[in-house]
Amino acid sequence: MSFFENLGKKVGEAAQAAARKSSEIVEVTKLNASINAEEDKIQKLYSEIGKKVFENFEQTGTADELVKEACEQIVSHRENIKNLKEKIAEVKGIKSCINCGTEMERTQLFCSKCGTRNEIPQPAAEESQPEANQPAGPVCSNCNAELAPGSAFCTNCGRKL
User: Fold this and answer.
1) Cα 91 off chain centre by
2) Which helix (H) or strand (E) segment is 10 a member of?
3) Do 149 and 135 contact (CB within 8 A), yes or no?
4) Which ranges of 61-159 would DSSP assign to H, the alpha helix?
5) pTM of the model
6) With contact defined as beta carbons under 8 Å apart, do 111 and 99 qualify?
7) Residues with Cβ within 8 Å of residue 147, at least 6 apart in sequence
8) Contact status, residue 109 vs residue 142, Cβ threshold 8 Å
């Protein structure tokens, strides 16, 4: 029976070793998670520092030589984003009201929400002229322009509806 006792003892030792290893793995995992959380906090602080440096650059136009180039690149990237958004609006045939920011068709002269007069952008060469169809919805009593549902102002003459 010493064989079975010896076997039982070895199995017990192996189980204890596995339990210790399992505890170690759990503890290491918890510690690694804590390390990752601390590193995330550091990254957020780096980001805040960078944002503050850039905001100072925007206000004063000056920055430390170590970061000035990066600040200038941010300005350039923002301008690229603005231009790309304008191209999207052009492709979609829309513009934003200069007063309230409401999206409106590029051909509208007046905002249907606030009534502010907006310039009509020059049509791109590839834009086609609007077809002369019968209005499908309500029309302005002043100029007979087609109105979008829920409009408070005519987009053609600016009259309050």
Assistant:
1) 20
2) helix 2-60
3) no
4) 65-92
5) 0.51
6) yes
7) 112, 137, 138, 139, 140, 154, 155, 161
8) no
